[in-house]
Design brief:
The protein has 266 residues and is of the alpha+beta class. 36% of the residues lie in helices and 29% in strands.
Amino acid sequence: MPRRWLGIRPWIWLATLLVLLVAVQQSPLGQQLGPRVNLFFTPLVGALQAPGIWWNDISQWFTGRVQIQHELLDLRRRVQQQSFIEQERDALRAENIQLRSLLALPELPDYIWHAAKVLGRSPDKMSQRLMLKAQMQINPDDAVASSEGLVGLVDSVSGHLAVVRTILDASLAVPATLPGSGLAVLVRGQGERLLVDFVPFDKAPEAGSVLVTSGAGGIFPPGIPLARILSVRAVAGSVFADVEAEPTAHWRRDAWLSVASQQQQP
């Protein structure tokens, strides 16, 4: 018999104890001894309620943690979206500045300027080839410029898409001159630099001087800034100097360029 009672599960003992507690409190004796009974059973009631309180606290903690994680993920998404919007706004602002600067290009007789968006650049360091897209018709041999100077020449066209050879391409030579002088030279690409050919040493421009297109040959419009002189060196046994220059235009960072198309003569 004692073993049978000892084998009863603990929760049955607890339930029985609670029933007895309620019965005592409801009895006349319990009402007379109410404060003392409550004082006696308070630790027991607290011990019985403790697991429930702990479970409730743990549940609330897990619920709060999950909610905080959701709020954190939502905040991260909002921050990423805001960052993307700000980057897009900055890009549009930069493009707007570039387009406004293209409007400042001088009007040229027999030429029409129209904007073209840069779609791609060749992987080489100086981007010797570009791909453009324009709303207006582009033709082979149209000149391409930025607000800073000549960029290159349209090489091939497919619809409104065009491949451009920049002035750093070794296959391209541009007739140029120094404003206010009778100098007539050729500027050709040499990888990352420009070489200026047929410069008499006694008439060579100083470093920092800017050469412009001369318009000779009828391909490139005259008066467009082309190259800034970097160095001038004498060549033994030659009347011509060894002259290196750099482009005045920086097309590797521009999203928009301008194309100069020749007007069709009636």
